[in-house]
Structure formats: C-alpha cells, structure tokens
Specification:
single chain; 251 residues; alpha+beta; five-stranded mixed beta sheet; 3 helices
Length: 251
C-alpha cells in the first residue's frame, strides 16, 4: 500500500513551506512496496535531491541524511520521512469564524480526554489565515512540538498538540472562510438616496431617544432599581428645596 506527502507553499499541502522559491504544489514523495518515488510537480524553481535536479517522477533511495532542495530552500529528508512513516493523526474540520476546543459540552469541538482542559484552545480566522490560541489550559497548546504563548498562524499539515493529544486540521478548513463584509458607517449603502441619510442632529436625537429607552427598559427589567429610586426621591426633593434660588453675593 502506497502513502504520499505533497510539499508546497499552498496551505492544502501535507507540508506547507511558505517561502518565495517554493511553488504552490512543488513536489510529492511517495512510499510504496518497492521504495520511494520523488516527483517534481512542474515547480517553477525545480526539485533537487543532494544537488541533482529531479525531472518528473524518479525512484530514489532516500535516507535521513539526504537533503531535498525546493528551489533554493533546503529541506531535510528526515522531516519528510517522519511525515510519511507516522500513523494518521486525528483531524478536526474548522468551519465558521471561530471554534473553541475543550472537554466540556459547551465547546464547539468537544474532545473528552483527561489531558484536555474544559476550554483548551481557540481557532479563529484573520482573512484567509487560521490562527490558534491557548485558553490558559493546564497542559498547554503546541504547534509542531513548540508550546505557544500567543496566537499562532497554522498551515495545512501542522500538528497541534492539546496537551499530549495530537490533532491536525482537515485540508478543507482553509476553504471555509465565509466572511461577511459590513458597510462602513460613514458610507451610505449603494442605491440609497443621499437625502435618506440622517443628519447629525437627527442622529443625535435618535441616539438620545434610544439611550433613554434603553435606560427605562433596564429599570423595568429590574424592579428593585425603581423602588430604590422612589425611596430616594423625598431626600432629593428636600435637598433641592433647601438650596436658595438666588444666593446673595458676599458683602
């Protein structure tokens, strides 16, 4: 049974290498019953094994001491061999703008394992990028074996450690960014007559009316506030009445 890994700068590759000399889908390494097959995927800057350019698909005797160049970028063969030899890691499919991973049922992705905190980590989007952030978990969050201290950008193929539990993001996670573009407040929507845009005075009046309505609704939603205000009313009236309306200037 054959197994392969694709290397390139695109996030849907098994190993994403985001450097200028690397093409989107640069090369592929396949292991089958007879050994290894290294294939250049029509890359711009070429694929090289120990300095020799690979054209098309070539049978290679790959060892951990070999070096593969993607254009000018050197990549240790040991890293590719570890990817192709490892057991499949559980995947998580990330859709939407944000997802919380944790052990309790209220999380978006529930993983009920003892090394995972109640709310362990958060995935969120910035444009086309996906970032991960630790949520003060007990056992930490790791990306490719390195513990993270703040938000970190994820690439396809990155290994995420939730404590000692390893997961990866499904390749289709990078195609699920459904970002709603909101109109800027200072710009009227297309097709809206300019006269329909409220003036500053109208906006202020509307804002004040809305604020009073919100405050009144808040009082009604908490009756004890209304009782407290009524209890303070006599004292307020007494203080107001005791202040002279036209105090005499000092002589």
């Amino acid at each position: 049974m054959s197994k392969s890994v694709t290397i390139g700068s695109r996030p849907d590759c098994d190993l994403a290498v985001n450097v200028p000399s690397v093409s989107g889908h640069h090369c592929r390494l396949t292991r089958d019953e007879t050994g290894f097959l290294l294939e250049d995927l029509n890359s711009t800057n070429g694929t090289f094994l120990n300095g020799e350019r690979i054209r098309g698909a070539v049978r290679v005797n790959l060892t951990v001491t070999d070096t593969i160049h993607l254009g000018s970028h050197a990549l240790a063969a040991e890293r590719l061999l570890s990817l192709i030899d490892r057991e499949p890691t559980p995947t998580i499919s990330f859709r939407g703008a944000e997802m919380v991973i944790g052990r309790i049922p209220g999380c978006d992705q529930v993983i009920d394992l003892p090394m995972i905190s109640s709310r362990h980590a958060s995935l969120f989007r910035e444009g086309v990028r996906i970032l991960i952030e630790d949520l003060r978990s007990s056992n930490g969050t790791f990306v490719n074996g390195t513990r993270i201290e703040g938000p970190v950008v994820l690439n396809s193929g990155d290994e995420v450690g939730l404590g000692s539990h390893l997961v990866t993001l499904a390749a289709d996670s990078w195609t699920q960014a459904n970002v709603i573009q909101m109109a800027k407040p200072s710009e009227p929507l297309a097709g809206t007559p300019q006269a329909a845009v409220p003036s500053l005075t109208e906006s202020s009046t509307t804002s004040s009316t809305s604020s009073l309505a919100i405050a009144f609704a808040g009082i009604l939603s908490r009756p004890w506030r209304l009782l407290a205000l009524l209890a303070q009313a006599p004292l307020a009236a007494f203080l107001i009445a005791s202040v002279p309306s036209n105090p005499r200037p000092p002589s």
